[in-house]
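Good morning N.,

You mentioned wanting to compare the apo and holo forms, so I went ahead and generated the holo version with shikimate-3-phosphate. This is what I fed in:
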Amino acid sequence: MMLTPEIASGFKNKFFMTILCRQLGKVTRHVIFLPPFLRNCQAARPLLLFPLTICIAMLAHMKASPKPAPRKPKPAAELAGSIAARLNRSVVLVGLMGSGKSAVGRRTAKQLGIGFKDSDQLIVKAAGISIAEIFELAGEVKFREMERKTLGNLALASPQIIATGGGAFCHDATADLLLHHTLTIWLKASPATLLSRIGNTKTRPLLHNGDPLATLTRLDEQRAPFYQKAHIHLVTDGLSTYKAMMALLHALDSHLPRQ
Ligand code: S3P
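and this is what came out, ligand included:
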């Protein structure tokens, strides 16, 4: 058991209470057992007054001893400053569509004062067409190849936050590259949470099949063994973007070695 300030203070108070009870017992004994002729005797008064004085002094001491202040959580800025100073590689967010990779990633990067990149956005910019169009015109295999190249370039650049497309980490070549050169974080959430966050499924070609919840459930089962390989796992169900960012900052703070 660790001796925390709260436990130590509890022991201290118990110790004083025990002494107090003992002294009160003595007073009672004096009052009861003192022969009647002594009870009225001037000389016997100090016998009664001494323990009483001790009791009052102890009560005053217990009241005066300050309660331990509750432990304050580290504010985001303090946490971010310490992490940014220790970060020597990029942080890559992996996980299913809707897990918050882009929203949480962008906010965390801003807090850390480092860059943010979204691999899907870079692919769209380079191709000049949407992800849905790339899937339609060139096929998923071509898209995965573009994804690997894009992430390969990003992984070797200076430390930044990188949001990946949901399938990126499920391709061995891409996963190996990220595991070796970056710090990978799996943002985990239930299929129902993912769907509620995605809202409009039009931009996600893999969800164009009538039952997005069933598809997300299947993808979750198929992809979990790949995501498991990430260095850090973070459950984001029920967390706002801010709370997920704070959870991410705390996870990074614990994971990164202290200098
Ligand atoms: C995909 C996820 C999408 C996008 C593409 C394929 C996937 O990215 O890369 O539609 O295979 O899960 P988001 O995870 O950012 O939605």
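Residues 97, 101, 120, 131, 165-167, 204-206 surround shikimate-3-phosphate (CB under 6 Å).

Happy to go through it together on a call whenever suits you.

Best,
F.
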